[in-house]
Amino acid sequence: MEKWKCTHKDEKEPYVVVNEVLATCSVMCKEKYSAKLEYIFALFDYNQSKTLNFDELRLSITSFFNGICRLVGLELPTVKDIAHRTGLIMKFADVVDLDFRLSYDEFRSYMKHDFETQDFLLKYCGT
Q1: Counting beta carbons within 10 angstroms of the beta carbon of residue 48, is it exposed (0 to 12), middle (13 to 18) or buried (19 or more)?
Q2: Which superfamily is assigned to 2-125 in CATH?
Q3: How many CA atoms lie within 13 A of 124 on its CB side?
Q4: What pTM does this model have?
């Protein structure tokens, strides 16, 4: 459990970021890739709009990458790196209606063709 403990300058005690644990467990499980995508999409669709806005997408990417990096002992991505990646995903995935929100179909289509993320998953998660 030590890998999951985080600290913040204003906190005295370490804490666990539940979103990171859930995102990591969802990609590590033995479900089909499509089921994992559905779960992650629903997990971060906080307002249940059936879309991910920029902030929801950024949080999902942050939770996913931070969780995996903590688990395997890699350096965490910077806030700047996450913002850049989120912007790229929005740019290349939001192709149907250009509303700066990702529908599940846009998210799924992008993730199925995002070979960089797939390589990361294969290397560190075996999925």
Answers
A1: exposed
A2: EF-hand (1.10.238.10)
A3: 20
A4: 0.82
